[in-house]
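Fold this: RICIN domain-containing protein
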Amino acid sequence: MKKSAQTILRPDAFYTIAAANGRVLEVADFNTENGASVRLWSYEGQPWQQWQFVEAGEDEYRIKNRFTGKVMDLAMSGVSNGTWVHQWSQTSGAGQRWQVVEAGGGRVKLRNVLADKVMDLVDMRVENGAQAQIWQDVSGENQLWKLDPVPERLLEKNIAPPPAKAAKAPAKGARAAKGTRTQTTKKSGGKSARRTSKNK
């Protein structure tokens, strides 16, 4: 097991990444495509809200989504304040590597190796749909996260697409339907759509 200060991360475990109000980071609309945004949402025990910390170097990790198999990444490899966090297929890029920094009180900061900035929420929002981004470390409450292991009983269930009632029929040629949630952030549909947002 790897240890970062008092935070011990098991390589075979999955975690929720929770803000101070208990809402967690998830892949928006259970989207499996590259470029799907990472946002805050109420925890529902779903696999797209669960993350694995995969060793990527000394005290560095890729943060991999249980449902999609893709990792947290910086849009367009941006390093400026306000760059959105989304998911992407694993590469060797430093924009997909994160350090877990002890922040006291059982909470941590997630520092991106490429940008040397930390996981943050756009406009310091904490409601459902708040978009994850990176920002310089300002010791803000919205930059602190609690990593909680997902109970074994939830991991024993097979991963399956969301129930039909949570989805609507996709448009012709579309990948999959969105859920019934109100989408408050845009998703990138492909590499050319990666962008840096400066909405803080």
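Confidence is low (pLDDT under 50) at residues 1-5, 164-200. The helical segments are 152-155.
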